[in-house]
Amino acid sequence: MRAALATAAVVGAAAVAALGLAALRPGAAPAEPPKRVFAFLSRADGLELRRLAQIGRRISVLAPNWYELDVDSGALHEPWQREPVLRAARRAGVPVWPVVNARTGGSAAIDDPLARARTVAAIVRVASDPAYAGVTLDIEELLATQRDAYTALVRDVAAALAVRRRRLAVYAPRPTRGGSALAYDWPALAAAADLLLVATYNETGPQGPPGPLDSSAGYADVLARAAAVSQTKTVPILGAIGYAWPQTGPGQMVSVIDAEQRRTRCRAPRSVADGNASYRCRGETVYHATSAGLRERARAAGAAGFRWMALFSLGREPRSFWDGMPRVRR
């Protein structure tokens, strides 16, 4: 019986993803994007704050990338430019769930119950700030063997926040066949947290050879995996980014806006295919998402039945991303 239910879930998720993939095909009828938008904020320069002022009332949650956590000691680095962002968020009426980041490097502290308790306490301290409605957890570089320990940490955080009436979102990287992505038990994390934020980009990452940020087929595959967990709690993240690869070495992340401005300065011809643009400039190869591609993927998520979508990150996308899209209702 359990196997039959699992098979039915996979088949149902595949059908859901097929709807999303169909929405990406040329000539497809436009679909509505998800009504709720979870927006990361990576900086607070003038452009980011202007974008928040422009479309803040179309955002359901704002997640400034503020806190750095040391999982070994539980120490937290304080946020940057907090007050201007909070003022802008209050004017827009959007709740703030700041991001707590940790790059663990596979630290054994995740496996140690005492160290884990320190980490939980640090996260709860952040979320308890009266200026916040919740917190967003982004813990990366886990070992695949730390899957159960990380799930236990998230459950402990969720339980502590529920008592304080605070919300919890948890980030998970794009699924891969091996490596750190195996440390994220999507069903268990979605059951514990209010939202599970799933990266759909980095099909080609900065460490690999130059290539598109994602593909329609790869995006549909992530939607299928997410739909198999929950269409109401899992949130596909759209990446308003790209990478610039030098002749040797890894690529460097750039925003879509920066990539487009760089190409204009270089007067370089570009190629556009499947929601990605590419060009060469001064020895670098650049691939980045396009505004049209981001809109198409947002609509595909809506066609697949997802209630939420996320944007990484606010102000990195061209203003045209929002043009022609239905007004998002919170």
TrEMBL record:
Signal peptide: 1-28
GO biological process terms, semicolon-separated: carbohydrate metabolic process
Lineage: Bacteria, Bacillati, Actinomycetota, Thermoleophilia, Solirubrobacterales
GH18 domain sequence ranges: 108-215
GO MF annotations in UniProt: hydrolase activity
KW Signal (keyword) present: yes
Protein name in the entry: Glycosyl hydrolase-like protein
Keyword annotations from UniProtKB, A to Z: Hydrolase, Signal
InterPro entries membership: Chitinase_insertion_sf, GH, Glyco_hydro18_cat
